[in-house]
Amino acid sequence: xxxxxxxxxxxxxxxxxxxxxxxxxxxxxxxxxxxxxxxxxxxxxxxxxxxxxxxxxxxxxxxxxxxxxxxxxxxxxxxxxxxxxxxxxxxxxxxxxxxxxxxxxxxxxxxxxxxxxxxxxxxxxxxxxxxxxxxxxxxxxxxxxxxxxxxxxxxxxxxxxxxxxxxxxxxxxxxxxxxxxxxxxxxxxxxxxxxxxxxxxxxxxxxxxxxxxxxxxxxxxxxxxxxxxxxxxxxxxxxxxxxxxxxxxxxxxxxxxxxxxxxxxxxxxxxxxxxxxxxxxxxxxxxxxxxxxxx
Length: 295
Hints:
Elements: H1 2-8, H2 11-29, H3 34-57, H4 59-62, H5 80-125, H6 132-135, H7 141-153, H8 164-187, H9 189-194, H10 200-204, H11 206-231, H12 236-253, H13 266-294
Helix pairs in contact: 2-3, 2-7, 2-13, 3-5, 3-7, 5-7, 8-11, 8-13, 11-12, 11-13, 12-13
């Protein structure tokens, strides 16, 4: 039953997504407080809830794909109605928790995430290969929650959602998600096509998609450079590590341009790029902590 719950709620993915709220909190304030954990838990709950409802919406397609056919609803272990109940309970608790923490602003952000993911993005995936572009807006919500939680915890610190720092962070998250998803399309193209999903592979062709993904990865690196310039790290060591991370990310991206590149090689690029993305955020978070400690 626990295994079914983990798969139904996409717990591992939801756990990882929720960490962005923690990193944003630290990047905004240079500190960790009780609000860090509350915002993390709230984001985790909303992510678990919308992910569960997503499986209710897509269980017929999931049953046609090799990598998803054993999901609890797709294989009949759990009924769609049970999935709706489980997902709704998570979402209702998340809405209550975020309203207690951040008031109407947090509540509206969570309602947007729910409506945009389950009401717009999930149906759009079945109609457009470019659904990932508007869907990428969802990736900005968790860091926004962490940022707002830091602003509430430290009202005199000058932390605002409309600050250049958050805009640069939000842009970094938004842009990164597009090549992130296209690499997944390369890995699971057969499954997506078999379930009837329109894919970027079919829209652009394999070679063009590889080139486009490379371009978007380069843009992601540029967005990371912009973010670093806005946060202006104090530590020279951090700056050097960030530069090395960017170079390694670029080198990894160039694999997409090789004539010998095979779709299975997308897994290696996917892992390396995600590590570089996460490491960049961690490095800036560490620098913000160092800045705060130096005050």
